[in-house]
Design a protein that fits this description.
heterodimer; A: alpha/beta; Rossmann fold; B: alpha+beta; two-stranded antiparallel sheet; 3 helices; about 15% strand
């Protein structure tokens, strides 16, 4: 039984692509077959975050239009052989994606993979609605910040009205992933707390990813954060979130960086 | 006094929370209302079109929300036969 997940947020820059790469890699690291699909036509970036930018030949639009077959367009990760990427087109018009064509490609992906994770573009336009349209479940990425929470609320409304599941009268399971969280600032009342966000959005919590330098480091290297350094706080948060997606019960904690005395004295990592 | 002022300035999260709660309560109603008007408009056009030829672009549906009751206003422009010839 394969599952199609959309990673969405409404607002840009909250960590959708980072999350898609990290969750995809974490699930693939357990030996399950995972495809990550970039829906951000014209502004593709998942290839870069996964370090596959020089291996893109065909893309989602080529497959939708029948120019390329799905296996030709899929890029298998060199480090995790159960992880594949279907890149977005960098050049073409987003109108080249049709609802029917996307549905066909998603169904073909379902046959080959245990997990299909769709990285939605920001906004609520065509690309975003197509990315969520055929999903079975949604991961909503939000930052503890007013505009991000407002946009998440809007996206929840769209998930409940514009998806194939919603139109069939079914309830789409939704999961909240709070990223760039700073427990110390939230504790001091300077940042929305997890409880505040949960109360406002009323969807279950999938994970809390702390604000961390490791996320930028991983993207610099073109390696999902769960693969770059599995012991870091964001990596542990994503591993836990992936286990919860898998149906496991994992206690909810905000992982923090364990700093050695030397790190504390010198104040920076020797990376 | 200075200490309390300092604390109040730092604790901005409760303000964010209250602003969001009020805003989203309003916006959630707004979105569902827009949907309702769109559905009403579509169905009204379908029913009227069965009997009279109309331009779907020239149909206005609006809701005026009052405290006691709300008013649903529907304006449909029906072209005259000679008007159509001139156009």
């Amino acid at each position: 039984m394969s599952k199609v997940i959309v990673v969405t947020s409404g607002k840009g820059g909250v960590g959708k692509t980072t999350t898609t790469a990290a969750l995809g890699a974490a699930l693939a690291q357990t030996g399950q077959m995972v495809a990550v699909v970039d829906f951000d036509v014209g502004l593709r970036n998942l290839d870069l975050i996964l370090g596959a930018e020089r291996r893109v030949v065909y893309d989602l639009i080529n497959v939708v239009q029948g120019v390329a077959k799905l296996p030709q367009a899929l890029i298998r990760d060199k480090r995790i052989d159960t992880l594949s990427l279907l890149p977005a087109s960098q050049t073409r018009d987003k109108d080249a994606l049709t609802d029917e064509g996307v549905g066909r490609v998603i169904n073909e992906l379902r046959e080959r993979f245990d997990w299909v994770i769709c990285d939605s573009p920001a906004g609520i336009e065509r690309g975003a609605t197509l990315a969520m349209r055929h999903a079975d479940e949604a991961v909503i990425v939000a930052n503890p910040e007013v505009s991000s929470v407002r946009d998440s609320d809007r996206i929840i409304g769209l998930l409940d009205s514009k998806t194939v599941m919603a139109e069939a009268g079914k309830h789409m399971p939704k999961h909240l992933l709070v990223s760039r969280f700073d427990a110390a600032r939230a504790g001091r009342g300077e940042m929305l707390s997890i409880e505040d966000i949960l109360e406002i959005l009323s969807i279950p919590l999938l994970g809390i990813v702390p604000e961390s330098e490791e996320v930028l480091r991983a993207s610099n290297l073109g390696t999902p954060v769960t693969l770059a350094n599995p012991a870091t706080a964001p990596a542990r948060a994503y591993f836990d979130a992936a286990r919860r997606l898998n149906g496991e019960t994992v206690p909810m904690v905000v992982p923090s960086e364990k700093k050695s005395l030397l790190d504390k004295i010198f104040g920076r990592r020797a990376a | 006094m200075t200490l309390f002022g300092f604390l109040r300035r730092r604790r901005s999260a409760p303000v964010a929370r209250e602003r969001l709660k009020i805003l989203l309560e309003y916006e959630r109603c707004l979105v569902s209302q827009v949907d309702l008007i769109a559905v009403l408009r579509q169905e009204i056009v379908a029913v009227v079109s069965r009997h009279v030829t109309i331009d779907p672009e020239r149909v206005q549906v609006s809701v005026d929300r009052g405290r006691e009751h709300s008013t649903l206003a529907v304006g449909i422009e029906i072209p005259n036969a000679n008007g159509q010839k001139a156009a």
